[in-house]
TrEMBL record, chains A, B:
<dbReference type="InterPro" id="IPR019811">
    <property type="entry name" value="HDH_CS"/>
</dbReference>
<dbReference type="InterPro" id="IPR036291">
    <property type="entry name" value="NAD(P)-bd_dom_sf"/>
</dbReference>
<dbReference type="Pfam" id="PF00742">
    <property type="entry name" value="Homoserine_dh"/>
</dbReference>
<dbReference type="GO" id="GO:0004412">
    <property type="term" value="F:homoserine dehydrogenase activity"/>
</dbReference>
<dbReference type="GO" id="GO:0009088">
    <property type="term" value="P:threonine biosynthetic process"/>
</dbReference>
<dbReference type="Pfam" id="PF03447">
    <property type="entry name" value="NAD_binding_3"/>
</dbReference>
<feature type="active site" description="Proton donor">
    <location>
        <position position="233"/>
    </location>
</feature>
<dbReference type="InterPro" id="IPR001342">
    <property type="entry name" value="HDH_cat"/>
</dbReference>
<comment type="similarity">
    <text>Belongs to the homoserine dehydrogenase family.</text>
</comment>
<dbReference type="GO" id="GO:0050661">
    <property type="term" value="F:NADP binding"/>
</dbReference>
<protein>
    <recommendedName>
        <fullName>Homoserine dehydrogenase</fullName>
        <ecNumber>1.1.1.3</ecNumber>
    </recommendedName>
</protein>
<keyword id="KW-0791">Threonine biosynthesis</keyword>
<comment type="pathway">
    <text>Amino-acid biosynthesis; L-methionine biosynthesis via de novo pathway; L-homoserine from L-aspartate: step 3/3.</text>
</comment>
<keyword id="KW-0028">Amino-acid biosynthesis</keyword>
<feature type="domain" description="Homoserine dehydrogenase catalytic">
    <location>
        <begin position="161"/>
        <end position="364"/>
    </location>
</feature>
<comment type="function">
    <text>Catalyzes the conversion of L-aspartate-beta-semialdehyde (L-Asa) to L-homoserine (L-Hse), the third step in the biosynthesis of amino acids that derive from aspartate (the aspartate family of amino acids), including methioinine and threonine, the latter of which is a precursor to isoleucine; production of homoserine leads to a branch-point in the pathway as it can either be O-phosphorylated for processing to threonine, or O-acylated for processing to methionine.</text>
</comment>
<keyword id="KW-0486">Methionine biosynthesis</keyword>
Length: 371, 371
């Protein structure tokens, strides 16, 4: 009978993804405790939001995290103090960062060097300066360092196995030539509705309003339309494919925010004035239509040329990118071994449950490596 | 400076997949030897075909395996002797089975119990009796046992990340409702040519002949057309999704071999008489066309109903399965978390390099777990 081992889990963030993850964690904890071959006790010892935290100095597992967090009046600790707390845990510790916070991301090297593993969908850790990327992977055991492990599948395409597929192509010696796809659920929805393959579609500003009303956009839709979210994902993919990318603003990114509306004070004012620019978008649509094509907002990495770009492109209506549905993502890997027909991964690339699933999947990978 | 560790590798099979794997192994061996964080020496100590073997009693690594194998006059050892040889190696050992041999598959539990890990594209190990499946996974460390690890990504869809994706859905607690797809490169090519979405296409017998001439079929095309290859893959997927499947002949599998030709003596005679049945296939095509659909040879698993089936189905021309190109595979996972739009994985599901890539990827996973 193998001896059960204990792994200490700290979670930062209890928003949409965080809540779904905590529910998946609770199910995983029950499953692992019952595993006949390698029973594992996952102890959730820390949960914090930007404002407060719940934890016990003696690493006693949290009970009902939802009510505990609500009842808590303790402000959260500074990140270095959390790192020390986890370093002193009587067993291996894993930090789950379910935020999109730059400060938390900046502290990853510190956690990793202390032997704490990290699992996260936080894009900012992997798409900021190349210095931060190097600091993270030179500290991590699955980089060149000797610290904790780090996995971030959900930072691109949520739970879709995009990063694991790319890593395997690279590690097994395939030559990645090009990566191309639709990497934003918001952009996918907007253009699949604006110019469906079957024809029709509404005015661009109307589609943005619909997407906003359905909760598919950030509170200020400009935060989607500026292309930065997609640029961050492309930065991550390009780096994993072996390119040096200084930052997500170091390559061409097309913003869909009209110049004139960049500086307007509020998202509401932006939405009110967006219809003034519908004619420009309709021109693009008509031009594509004349070539038998549709317009889509895509990102691509040309690995041999070292080129990364994000913006509008035209696709034949029979192209898999044109035929995408709803708010799905699609990612095509063109490689030497796959030849002309790429390896394609497609499906929901946003949403609490599927993003949390990528995080939970990564946690399982870390637990196997910590054996 | 970490101490380099040594892992002993034995390879059975030096055919199409075997040769590609040996070339990928040689590249991986160089990469791992240079790894700054965890240098690993992979020592290829055994290589055998059905007829002969090359190895040294003192575990000295093989030099030039190609010329060594050609020059060898040693018959291969019985499998239990190979298992003892690897068990006594002065370090961890991994058996790579690049055959499709049932005897080798039947011996996996023996190897695993001796602590030898296994990586293989050999479908027969996972799609024969449910007793063999249980014996394998009750011996393996990544099953319920304490023996070696076993991975078999390439047994379905070659290097496409199909099994790893399915395992992650299950392990993270998603509910898989249905798995559906085209799982045979041969069947994909045949039907994409027989009834292209854009219309046209040749007689069925002519497409079989083209596929045979291009090397896309087994030497006797009946070995593809009987549906057993697809049934074996569905057996594996259904078992990973949690269903009890007794064998690949325990559920409905539609054979495309006309009853009258099942017993003809040779593949050549079969090919000569196949045109007699073109009218029957044309009827199916016309019937589908009248509904605006195309015919495809697919497999599906309905998890809640516990139903597995393989055969011809009709799909709308806009369906991703209809739009498949060349000899690509496509696999759609319908799950609770993904909702109406499934997680789709698509690309080449056959061929030496991509099959070997799945094997190499699995070997890397085993090496990480053996740390």
């Amino acid at each position: 009978m193998p001896v059960p081992r204990q792994v200490f889990i700290a979670v930062i963030g209890a928003g949409g993804v965080g809540k779904c993850f905590l529910s998946q964690l609770s199910q995983l904890t029950s499953n692992l405790a019952r595993s006949p071959s390698a029973p594992t006790t996952l102890s959730l010892v820390w949960l914090s939001t930007s404002k407060k935290a719940v934890y016990h100095a003696d690493y006693k597992p949290l009970g009902n995290w939802e009510s505990d967090l609500e009842a808590s009046t303790s402000p959260t600790l500074p990140l270095p103090d959390l790192a020390s707390y986890l370093e002193k845990a009587p067993g291996k510790a894993v930090l789950i960062d379910n935020t999109s916070n730059q400060d938390v991301a900046d502290s990853y090297p510190l956690f990793l060097r202390k032997g704490i593993s990290i699992v996260t969908p936080n894009k900012k850790a992997f798409s900021s300066t190349s210095q931060l990327w190097r600091d993270i992977f030179s500290a991590a055991s699955n980089g060149t360092g000797a610290g904790g492990y780090i996995f971030h599948e959900s930072s691109v395409g949520a739970g879709l196995p995009v990063l694991s597929a790319l890593k395997e192509l690279v590690e097994t010696g395939d030559q990645v030539r090009k990566i191309e796809g639709v990497f934003s659920g918001t952009m996918s929805f907007l253009f699949n509705s604006f110019q469906p393959v079957a024809g029709g579609g509404g005015k661009f500003s109307a589609e943005v309003k619909t997407a906003k009303d359905k909760g598919f956009t950030e509170p200020d839709p400009r935060d989607d339309l500026n292309g930065l979210d997609v640029a961050r994902k492309l930065t991550i993919l390009a780096r994993l494919a072996g390119l040096e990318v200084e930052s997500p603003t170091s390559f061409p990114v097309q913003s869909l925010i009209p110049k004139e509306l960049e500086a307007v004070a509020s998202g509401d004012e932006f939405m009110a004035r967006l219809p003034e620019f519908d004619d420009q978008m309709d021109e693009l649509k008509t031009a594509a239509e004349k070539e038998g094509k549709v317009v889509r907002f895509v990102g691509s990495v040309d690995v041999p040329k070292g080129e990364v770009k994000v913006g509008l492109e035209k696709f034949d209506t029979s192209h898999p990118i044109a035929a995408l549905k709803g708010s799905d993502n699609i990612i095509a890997f063109y490689t030497e071994r796959y030849g002309d027909n790429p390896l394609i991964i497609q499906g929901a690339g946003a949403g609490g449950e599927v993003t949390a699933m990528g995080v939970t999947g990564d946690l399982i990978k870390v637990l196997r490596l910590l054996q």
